[in-house]
């Protein structure tokens, strides 16, 4: 059931981005510090990965500051580690993530399920 919900979330985001692009509207990325105000919406977040923390169950890309001072994280669960094989190389790089912003323990996050949700900017 979670996989179906994640799939529909990704499809909805993609459809929204395509409609905006077709209408000539630019999808404006937001900063990690702005993500908490956008909880519940689909967004594109761009920022520098300050820290990559990986355990057996989850990997977190903490943006702008290391845990626990980060405003925003991109999260990859273990079932998707095979999809995101380069997570350890992202520390210090500026990346763009897209998806539905949720909140966990007072911090904004996007859960990454597909490679298309993550792009290295520089």
Please, could you describe this protein's structure?
The chain has 122 residues and is an alpha+beta fold. The protein has a single domain (28-120), classed as Nucleic acid-binding proteins (OB fold (Dihydrolipoamide Acetyltransferase, E2P), Beta Barrel), CATH 2.40.50. The protein is 17% helix and 36% strand. The chain has 1 helix and 6 strands. It has a 5-stranded mixed barrel. A hairpin with a 2-residue loop joins strand 4 and strand 5. The longest helix is centred in the first third of the chain and has 21 residues, at 2-22. The radius of gyration is 14 Å and the shape is globular.
CATH class descriptor = Mainly Beta
Please, what is the average pLDDT? Answer: 86
Helix content estimate: 10-25%
Q: Which fold does the CATH topology refer to?
A: OB fold (Dihydrolipoamide Acetyltransferase, E2P)
Annotation field: number of helices: 1
| Number of separate strands | 6
Distance between the termini: 35 Å
Second CATH tier, the architecture: Beta Barrel
Structural class label: alpha+beta
Write the H/E string, N to C: HEEEEEE
- CA radius of gyration: 14 Å
For the largest beta-sheet, the strand count, sense and barrel status come to: 5 strands, mixed, barrel
Oligomer: single chain
Low-confidence stretches: 5-24
The total domain count is 1
Q: State the fourth-level CATH superfamily.
A: Nucleic acid-binding proteins
Q: Assign an overall shape.
A: globular
Strand line-up of the largest beta sheet: 1-2-3-5-4
The fraction of residues assigned to DSSP E strands is 35-45%
């Amino acid at each position: 059931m979670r996989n179906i919900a994640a799939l529909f979330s990704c499809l909805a985001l993609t459809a929204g981005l395509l409609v905006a692009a077709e209408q000539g509207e630019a999808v404006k990325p937001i900063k990690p510090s702005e993500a908490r105000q956008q909880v519940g919406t689909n967004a594109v977040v761009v920022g520098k990965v300050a820290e990559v923390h990986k355990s057996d169950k989850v990997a977190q890309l903490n943006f702008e500051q290391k845990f626990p001072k980060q405003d925003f994280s991109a999260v990859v669960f273990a079932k998707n580690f095979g999809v995101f094989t380069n997570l350890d190389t992202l520390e210090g790089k500026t990346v763009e993530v897209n998806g539905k912003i949720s909140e966990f323990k007072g911090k904004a996050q996007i859960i990454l399920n597909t490679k298309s949700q993550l792009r290295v900017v520089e």
